[in-house]
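ARCHIVE CARD
Drawer: 12
Card no.: 0347
Subject: one protein chain, sequence and derived structure
Cross-reference: see card 0346
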Amino acid sequence: MVVKRIEPHGAGAWENISLDGDETPPEYGSGQVRTIFQSEDGKVTIYLYRRDKDIGQLRALKTATARTFHCDVLLDGAVTIVDENGHRTDAVTGEMLTYNGADEGRWLADGPLLKLAISVEQ
């Protein structure tokens, strides 16, 4: 077995993040993101995201486009995604969600949330 350690290019500390379409009550503060890895060309980003409550648009990241693929693994918490047709998808700790950066919908997390997220620009 060969284990390769990837140097954390672009890694940083926890930072507050501003999200488009954020509907979370202000008393819950902003979400926080911690980049774990970002490729040198900026097309692949792996990060942690946490927040006490998170309500808003699915396509909240300002960098999201139709050419962006997202994969979220819930490390703690639960979330409901409601797509543009009203279809609900529920996910809990240990489950993974995948979606395109151009997908329309709402992200509803009524309690604390921690996720590992991977974003890939094609």
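Annotation on reverse: The two ends are 30 Å apart (CA to CA). Residues 77 and 113 are 5 Å apart (CA to CA).
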